[in-house]
């Protein structure tokens, strides 16, 4: 297998109106709000936390660091991984400096770096729960402790902060953490022959390797991946040694999950399909893709391919959400995609974006970019409200306030976004994805620049190459490129043709041109000083169906235009929404409403609505001819649902 070098470009400025709004929202609303929450200064309620984690409005995440640093007294509050809320927030702030310099915020983040450095132990260890309340149990219960997961999230943040600001202390904290981990883990005598129950450190060490070029960190990432599952009883042995009583568990109930849940039942090279906790799976996959790219490990790459194919072709919702069940926030089995009990954790969609990006760095394959786009415009983005202060942990494809309130099996499904969560992994995770979206638009492999996301931007590459992309995507499919190549560098420019656009038109310097589609991309040889490209994608509204192997969607249709999946909401349509029927060839009408939901494309589709039975009618009765009326059903983008009144929502509609 070919070993690839690090793909790099100099700078990307996002000019897309759609994404500029979200990125500015992160700076002006999301980061200040989350900072207040983590400092216990915000007036919030977490009573609607779908997992019922936490009993009051405290986060205490910053206070935990202050206690570990000796600036406060007290006990640790929250989960063992509470520190990661701060680290992901710091990472998002670091990315924001690249497009919105903010001296006031930088004072806060510089001070936070100083606090983290002060909290770190002399040997580089940093996980405040164990430092404050259980120092004798460090690395003793890795199934549940999240210690390497926690330090991995700081390493990611430290690398991002160093890259953004040049703050050496931020990077030094990260390298000291990694050195501490390296001194404790491995197959040498006296070291721990194990790994964390929650993958994350593998991808973090890969990012640290990229900036330091220290081979030790890549070797350590490779060790964690190849050691996983070598001794399936490793976690059990640790629990027994640490004290087998359930009172010793760090997170109640975590020992009850099978080894497959932790992807530890067998070595990765032998695992046929992804199983268990969805976020663990995609973080592991991201680490595998990273390490496979730098080491040439064919077994890891083969595992990436197996896991990708199973997730995307058999266990992914049309919105990109993954993880079907609330029990363990986990995958279930192929083609099991229930809509009204779907879990679809926001973090899992963010993690799937990470995975897709790393696969693009290995291969120029349009499928990876299609999934990345699906997450960006649907599955991940739905996790945050339009005001930046309310969040979804769970992202269903069908919701009903009565069901969420009255059926315990659906209580995890919210029909309005919450202020915060006791387990608050999702809000800052989404913030760091949005703030870094400029890093997801291009991939450079050898002599080829791939433009695989239609997010308007101005990009600068080596050799003086500049690429300008303008559009009104995702509402319009007209994509305009201007490429300036002042040094007459010779390179290929690849443009993705999305799977949702079977037809397209391309012109080069005003002349129509036909190019073959190769694995989802068209390629143009650039060797002159400038070139202008115009791409016209098929933005017709499409009525979609699922594979007939998906029981939950049998006899149903969904609506998609471009990359955007649509949903019916009670805010626009008379309830109940299950009474509507849509024909496969139903007439549709599209218009852009700049005043609705901060500007969205709206689809109206011809439908039939069955007359609702009287409340006094029999519960069961003989089938008779249906009494229906013709109506128009109004649909809005899935990501924008639940920003108005509380009510029902459906993505999949009954087929007429």
How many H/I helical runs? 17
> Any idea what the radius of gyration is?
25 Å
CATH class of the largest domain: Mainly Alpha
In whole angstroms, the N-to-C terminal distance is 50 Å
Give the CATH topology of the largest domain: Glycosyltransferase
* Overall strand count: 21
Helix percentage range? 25-40%
Shape: globular
What's the average pLDDT? 95
Pfam families: Beta-AFase-like_GH127_cat, Glyco_hydro127C, Glyco_hydro127M
Protein name: Glycoside hydrolase family 127 protein
Domain Non-reducing end beta-L-arabinofuranosidase-like GH127 C-terminal: 542-654
Domain Non-reducing end beta-L-arabinofuranosidase-like GH127 middle: 448-535
Concise overview:
Helix content is 34%, strand content 16%. The chain is α+β, with helices and mostly antiparallel strands and 656 residues long.
What does this structure look like?
The chain is of the alpha+beta class and 656 residues long. The protein folds into three domains: 25-53 and 62-440, Glycosyltransferase (Alpha/alpha barrel), CATH 1.50.10; 443-537, Golgi alpha-mannosidase II (Immunoglobulin-like, Sandwich), CATH 2.60.40.1180; 543-655, no CATH class. Helix content is 34%, strand content 16%. The chain is built from 17 helices and 21 strands. It has helices spanning 17-38, 61-68, 83-96, 103-119, 128-132, 142-145, 147-165, 168-184, 201-212, 215-227, 234-242, 278-295, 298-314, 346-362, 366-379, 401-406, 425-435, and strands at 11-14, 398-399, 442-445, 448-451, 457-460, 466-470, 478-484, 491-496, 504-508, 511-512, 521-526, 530-537, 541-544, 556-561, 564-569, 580-582, 588-593, 600-610, 628-637, 649-650, 653-655. It has a seven-stranded antiparallel β-sheet with strand order 1-5-6-7-12-9-10, with no helix packed on it. Strands 14-15-19-18-16-21 form a six-stranded mixed β-barrel. A hairpin with a 2-residue loop joins strand 3 (442-445) and strand 4. Helix 2 packs across helix 3 (83-96), helix 7 (147-165) runs antiparallel to helix 8 and helix 9 packs antiparallel against helix 10 (215-227). The longest helix has 22 residues, at 17-38. The model is unreliable at 1-7 (pLDDT under 50).
């Amino acid at each position: 297998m070919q070993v690839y070098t690090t793909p790099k470009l100099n700078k990307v400025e996002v000019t897309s109106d759609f994404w500029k709004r979200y990125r500015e929202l992160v700076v002006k609303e999301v980061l200040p709000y989350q900072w207040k929450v983590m400092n216990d200064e915000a007036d919030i309620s977490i009573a609607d936390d779908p997992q019922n984690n936490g009993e009051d409005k405290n986060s205490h995440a910053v206070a935990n660091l202050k206690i570990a640093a000796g600036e406060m007294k007290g006990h640790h509050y929250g989960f063992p991984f509470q520190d990661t809320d701060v680290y992901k927030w710091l990472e998002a702030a670091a990315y924001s400096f690249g497009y919105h310099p903010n001296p006031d915020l930088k004072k806060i983040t510089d001070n936070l770096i100083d606090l983290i450095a002060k909290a770190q132990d002399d040997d580089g260890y940093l996980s405040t729960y164990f430092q404050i309340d259980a120092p004798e149990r460090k690395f003793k219960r890795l199934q549940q402790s999240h210690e390497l997961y926690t330090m991995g999230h700081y390493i990611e943040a430290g690398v991002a902060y160093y890259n953004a600001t040049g703050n050496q202390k931020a990077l030094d904290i990260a390298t000291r953490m990694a050195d501490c981990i390296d001194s404790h883990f491995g197959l040498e005598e006296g070291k721990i022959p194990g790994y964390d129950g929650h993958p994350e450190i593998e991808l973090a060490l890969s990012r640290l390797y990229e900036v330091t070029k220290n081979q030790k960190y890549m070797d350590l990432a490779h060790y964690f991946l190849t050691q996983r599952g070598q001794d399936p009883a490793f976690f059990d042995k640790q629990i027994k040694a640490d004290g087998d009583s359930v009172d010793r568990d760090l997170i109640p109930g975590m020992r009850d999950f099978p080894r497959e849940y932790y992807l530890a039942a067998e070595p990765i090279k032998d695992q046929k399909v992804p199983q268990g906790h969805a976020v663990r799976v995609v973080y592991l996959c991201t680490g595998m893709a990273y390490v496979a790219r730098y080491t040439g490990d064919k077994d890891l790459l083969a595992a990436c391919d197996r896991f990708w194919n199973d997730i995307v072709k058999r266990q992914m919702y049309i919105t990109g959400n993954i993880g079907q069940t609330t029990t363990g926030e986990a995958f279930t089995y192929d083609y099991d995609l229930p809509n009204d009990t779907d879990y679809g954790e926001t973090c899992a969609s963010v993690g799937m974006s990470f995975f897709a990006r790393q696969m693009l760095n290995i291969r120029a394959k349009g499928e990876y970019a299609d999934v990345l786009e699906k997450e960006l415009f649907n599955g991940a983005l739905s996790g945050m409200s339009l005001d930046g202060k309310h969040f979804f942990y769970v992202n269903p494809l069908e919701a009903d306030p009565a069901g969420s309130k009255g059926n315990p099996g659906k209580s995890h499904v919210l029909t309005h976004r919450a202020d915060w969560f006791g387990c608050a992994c999702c809000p800052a995770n989404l913030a760091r994805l949005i703030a870094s979206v400029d890093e997801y638009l291009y991939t450079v492999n050898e002599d080829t620049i791939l433009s695989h996301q239609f997010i308007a931007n101005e990009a600068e590459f080596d050799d003086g190459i500049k690429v300008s992309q303008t559009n009104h995507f995702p509402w319009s499919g007209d994509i305009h490129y201007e490429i300036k190549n002042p040094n007459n560098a010779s390179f290929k420019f690849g443009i993705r043709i999305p799977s949702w656009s079977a037809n397209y038109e391309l012109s080069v310097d005003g002349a129509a041109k036909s190019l073959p589609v190769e694995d989802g991309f068209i390629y143009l040889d650039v060797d002159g000083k400038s070139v202008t490209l115009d791409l016209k994608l098929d933005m017709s509204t499409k009525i979609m169906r699922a594979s007939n192997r998906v029981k939950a969607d049998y006899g149903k249709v969904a609506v998609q235009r471009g990359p955007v999946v649509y949903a019916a909401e009670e805010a626009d349509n008379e309830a109940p929404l299950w009474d509507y029927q849509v024909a496969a060839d139903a007439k549709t009408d599209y218009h852009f409403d700049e005043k609705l939901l901060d500007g969205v494309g709206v689809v109206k589709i011809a439908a039939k609505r069955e007359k609702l039975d009287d409340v006094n009618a029999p519960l069961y009765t003989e089938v008779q001819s249906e009494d229906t009326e013709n109506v128009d059903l109004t649909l809005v983008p899935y990501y924008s649902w639940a920003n108005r009144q509380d009510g029902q929502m459906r993505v999949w509609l009954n087929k007429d």
